[in-house]
């Protein structure tokens, strides 16, 4: 990615992204060539259409929704946590770990690769730093986790790349030592230093706590459209018990975690019908959440590349980026690191799942252990810098 030349916003160019069946969106139209611009006529308020459940059944949305998060087989004391634990699932997990070994068990191996390299840490938020809970507004990270992240950031450049809005994830994490990317990487704040060479049309200057910072917002033209769709989705799902819609500025999420499974086809169809009126938006699936985002060629993988470049690390060979995440959207980042063996993806999962990651961690508690191990290793190696 050449960030040094002035470029228009990243419009959809990847033919795979135009594959309607993969996106599960009927009627997806190609973008215009010149970037994600739209006129106010495109923003016309969509009308609620009659429910035709065949749409969401035939396009695979429902299957994807059912597969989107591990089932709860056995509840523990903390009933809000997703837990899967019985003998057969443990056996399946152990054999899955042959392909995705534990990052804790492989710590020495990872460190030997990092010997002459600078480690850069990328972290997802939900399911990685905070456990998955029923209420997205209560997805807090523990004090121990916050300390571990703060210590990691003292020693290694560290960024959080979340599907939430940048403001929201900053509010939840509360650490100034990190770099933050919200809306699946469509809203990146990066420091003024080290980024002088970046001349990109989607970069604007801003101030944050009286410091001059840069903002990279490749989907900024979609802001009114996302806001409108958010309001429409709130209105069109308000009668579905348990449905929750979140506005993440450059994308919006429709949660169905607390919706009875019998109503999943209804919520899916409502989202589908709204999207039918917005051909320049697409749908991706997260953990019991339908995520609506602009059809631009940008994802968490691109955000990793952008952050490395903006931190002045893009052309360094002695670099070991490590990305820890749990969700499908993190796969784009795992893929970028796997390609050309640039670094390591670590998938956080209690159940076996196919991934582009190299290693695995079982849950947020293991993520914390891994971060603490990184800090310990660094402090033993270089005690003067503590
Ligand atoms: O990229 P992330 O930081 O992992 O954000 C992805 C989504 O995370 C949140 O939803 C998920 O976590 C919730 C709290 O544990 C849970 O209730 C929900 O079912 C999960 O999908 C967030 O609320 C979403 O908007 C993000 O897109």
UniProtKB/TrEMBL annotation:
Signal peptide: none annotated. InterPro entries: HAD-like_sf, HAD-SF_hydro_IIB, HAD_sf, OTSB-like, Trehalose_PPase. It comes from the Eukaryota. It catalyses: alpha,alpha-trehalose 6-phosphate + H2O = alpha,alpha-trehalose + phosphate. Keywords: Hydrolase, Stress response. Removes the phosphate from trehalose 6-phosphate to produce free trehalose. Trehalose accumulation in plant may improve abiotic stress tolerance. CDD domains: HAD_TPP. Pathway: Glycan biosynthesis; trehalose biosynthesis. Its cofactor is a divalent metal cation. This is Trehalose 6-phosphate phosphatase. One of its GO terms (molecular function) is trehalose-phosphatase activity. Its EC number is 3.1.3.12. It holds the Pfam family Trehalose_PPase. The lineage of its organism: Eukaryota, Viridiplantae, Streptophyta, Embryophyta, Tracheophyta. GO terms for biological process: trehalose biosynthetic process. Belongs to the trehalose phosphatase family. It comes from Oldenlandia corymbosa var. corymbosa. SUPFAM superfamilies: HAD-like.
């Amino acid at each position: 990615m050449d960030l040094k030349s002035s470029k228009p916003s990243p419009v959809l160019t990847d033919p795979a992204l135009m594959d309607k069946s993969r996106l599960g969106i009927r009627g997806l139209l190609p973008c215009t060539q010149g970037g994600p611009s739209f006129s106010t006529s495109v923003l016309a308020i969509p009308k609620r259409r009659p429910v035709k459940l065949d749409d969401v059944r035939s396009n695979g949305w429902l299957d994807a929704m059912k597969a989107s998060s591990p089932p709860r087989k056995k509840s523990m004391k903390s009933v809000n946590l997703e837990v899967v634990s019985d003998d057969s699932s443990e056996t399946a997990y152990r054999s899955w770990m042959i392909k995705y070994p534990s990052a804790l068990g492989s710590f020495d191996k990872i460190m030997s690769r990092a010997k002459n390299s600078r480690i850069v840490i990328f972290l997802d938020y939900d399911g990685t730093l905070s456990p998955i809970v029923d209420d997205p507004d209560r997805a807090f990270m523990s004090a121990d986790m916050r300390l571990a992240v703060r210590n990691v950031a003292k020693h290694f450049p560290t960024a959080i790349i979340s599907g939430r809005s940048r403001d929201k994830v900053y509010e939840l994490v509360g650490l100034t030592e990190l770099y933050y990317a919200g809306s699946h990487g469509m809203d990146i704040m990066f420091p003024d230093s080290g980024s002088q060479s970046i001349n990109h049309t989607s970069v604007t200057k801003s101030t944050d706590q009286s410091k001059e910072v840069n903002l990279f917002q490749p989907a900024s033209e979609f802001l009114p459209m996302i806001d409108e769709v958010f309001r429409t989705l709130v209105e069109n799902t308000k009668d579905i018990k348990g449905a929750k819609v979140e506005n993440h500025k450059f994308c919006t999420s429709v949660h169905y975690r607390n919706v009875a499974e019998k109503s999943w086809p209804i919520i899916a169809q409502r989202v589908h019908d709204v999207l039918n009126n917005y051909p320049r938006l697409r749908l991706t699936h997260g953990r019991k959440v339908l995520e609506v985002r602009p059809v631009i060629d940008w994802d968490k993988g691109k955000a990793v590349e952008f952050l490395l470049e903006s931190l002045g690390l893009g052309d360094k060979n002695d670099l070991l980026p490590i990305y820890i995440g749990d969700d499908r959207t993190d796969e784009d980042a795992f893929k970028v690191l796997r390609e050309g063996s640039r670094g390591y993806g670590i998938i956080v999962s209690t159940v076996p799942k196919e991934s582009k990651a190299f290693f695995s961690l079982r849950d947020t508690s293991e993520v914390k252990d891994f971060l603490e191990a990184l800090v310990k290793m660094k402090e033993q190696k270089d005690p003067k810098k503590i």
